[in-house]
Amino acid sequence: MTRVMLRILMAIGSVLRTGWLILGITLVLLIVGEVGLRLAFAVKDRLMDRPRTEHPPAALAARSRKDARDLPVPAAGSTDLDPEQASDFVAERRGAYRYIPRPYVHWGHPPLQGRYINVNRDGLRVTWNPPPQEVAGDPPPVRVFTFGSSTMWGHGARDDYTIPSHLSKLLHAQGYRAEVTNYGEAAYVSTQEIITLLRCIQRGEIPDIALFYSGANDVLASYETGEAGLLTGWSWRVDPNLWLRAHGRRLLGNFQGFRRFMTGLRRYIRPPASIGRPQIPPLGDQVARQTLRVYEANLTFIELLGRHYGFEPLFYWQPVLFSKQRRSPREQARVEHRFSRIFEDMYRRVRQSEALNGHARFHNISDLFDDLEEPYYVDGWHLSEAGNRLIAEAMADDVIELIEQLLHRPTTGNSTIPSHPRT
Question: Which of 60, 184, 215, 288 could potentially form a cystine with 153 if both were Cys, beta carbons 3.0 to 4.6 Å apart?
């Protein structure tokens, strides 16, 4: 019996050794092949006097800043960003995209401390607010909660230059005492924003004004799933093939040599007519109509919550690059993105929606950048710090109007709103 067990263990050990040997050889071949391909392409580019296909982080950041204003500027107010700062910001932004499970909304940011990006222990992006003024008898400042996805969270900006931070600065400059809290989170759809607000109410954290900045992810989620009202990336959770494909591409993206080799091979094999990105057709009419219906239902639900708990809602349909009329050269190159037809179709439907555009609290600001040639977009929908400022300016007057209404409204019923004085 002992001999049999010994033979079995030896056989298992032999299999493991063989497996590790094959894995090791495979990794060595991949590394050698990748290094060899990179060297070969580097020599080819130099001989053909072509620009390098890869850039160090500092150079990439500087180029992005010059072309698209997608990086922040130093706090001192300079219009330029030195390469070290740009590289640090890009690296910090990449590292900030880590998530932990959150009840009901599925994911959220863990606490983070950085030079440009900070997330508090509640998972909220740090927002600029004026220092508190402790004056006896003064009521608390107006509480403004902002909800949205990664653009509201501040994908292309430092803490003090996100949309909520710009809004807080504008309110402070106008003499209003307000505290703005950023509840934006990457990839959230409007339903997740509602759940986030509901969780706040359950904890007794009721805003005076609840501001929602939505649109892009509702459209993306409908495209990804073929059904309105689901989450972005939800298809990855129900279809492992899509998950593997998405993460496989991310892994293969690190092998620049093999990727360039395969790209060239595809171009050589494919007929010229087939080269280029495939065009994705617009959403089906039923899914598109249901997408708007879900958004309208969410808007109505938030209004009902506001009436009961005493807060005032504001809704903004966000601009995206695909609907912009005048584009910079870099933006024009990006507008060929495969999602452009989907956004053009859905945004046309929003402009034509009588239910939305007849709503007093709904603001379609998707044309905000139409007449501006400056490249305020980092990508298809994320904005630079300068773009965030323009969004906040578009919101500020509406927020101030509501604050003025709150100043003269007595506290009755379930309302928790005090009479907020100006400074």
Answer: 184
Domain of 287, CATH number, reads 3.40.50.1110
| pLDDT at position 252 | 58
Judge whether 14 lies within some domain.
Answer: no
Strand residues in 299-387 grouped as ranges (E): 312-317, 362-364
pLDDT tens-digit series, residues 270-282: 554 444 444 556 6
- Mean predicted confidence (pLDDT) in 9-17: 79
Pair type for strands 142-148 and 209-214: parallel
CA angle 229/231/232 to nearest 5° reads 125
Residue 60 burial (CB < 10 Å; 0-12/13-18/19+)? middle
Per-residue pLDDT at 415: 44
Instruction: For residue 314, give the nearest of 128, 150, 147, 183 by alpha carbon.
Output: 147
Structure tokens at 225: 């799933």
Under 8 Å between Cβ of 361 and 300: no
Distance CA 384, CA 81 (A): 14
Q: What domain range is 281 assigned to?
A: 97-407
Beta bridge mates, 312: 209
- Give me the phi and psi of 329, to 5 degrees please: -55, -40
Amino acid at 67: D
Alpha carbon 230 to chain centroid, angstroms? 17
Q: Which residues, other chains included, contact 105 with Cβ-Cβ below 8 Å and sequence gap of 6+?
A: 185, 188, 192, 195, 196, 199
Q: What is the pLDDT of residue 21?
A: 82
